[in-house]
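Backbone-to-sequence.
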């Protein structure tokens, strides 16, 4: 039992290192800061994934994180909206704009039991700043665990509208 656990741990660590190396080579890390003033960002969310021949759903918890990467300027999150697989808005997470001070972050959660989004759910995040700033990192982390099995992965946001002016 202990050997099986250690082997799983070694395999898991190797997998994390492999994914990290792949992500770096795929351009997920930034060497030069990109500047912007306003964006609309699409972030895919998986409220579940399917496994097995019978396509059993495996529910996941999702955490959307918005990180202000600018060391000196505030950014304003105008809206965070959650949509289902058919593109219909399920929930508006922001009643009013949220200011993120330099280096600050904010998180928004979709519970594991919340399956209203479906496997093709997504967030649309809109933000702006008074001047050009380092563009924030906007990404989602999905995680689920059941019966000694677990899965976790990230989905980076995709800019769908950008303004540098």
């Amino acid at each position: 039992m202990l050997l099986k656990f250690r082997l799983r741990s070694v395999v898991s660590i190797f997998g994390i290192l492999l994914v990290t190396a792949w992500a770096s080579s795929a351009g997920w890390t930034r060497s030069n800061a990109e500047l912007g003033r306003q964006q609309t960002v699409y972030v895919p969310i998986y409220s579940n994934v399917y496994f097995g021949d019978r396509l059993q759903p495996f529910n996941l918890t999702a955490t959307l994180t918005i990180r202000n990467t600018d060391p000196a300027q505030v950014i304003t999150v105008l809206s965070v909206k959650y949509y289902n697989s058919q593109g219909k808005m399920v929930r508006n997470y922001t009643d009013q704009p949220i200011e993120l001070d330099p280096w600050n972050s904010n998180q928004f959660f979709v519970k594991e039991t919340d399956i209203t989004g479906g496997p093709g759910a997504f967030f649309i995040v809109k933000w702006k700043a008074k001047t050009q700033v380092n563009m924030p990192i906007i990404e989602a982390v999905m995680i689920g665990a059941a019966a000694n099995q677990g899965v976790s992965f990230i989905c980076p946001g995709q800019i769908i509208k950008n303004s540098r002016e």
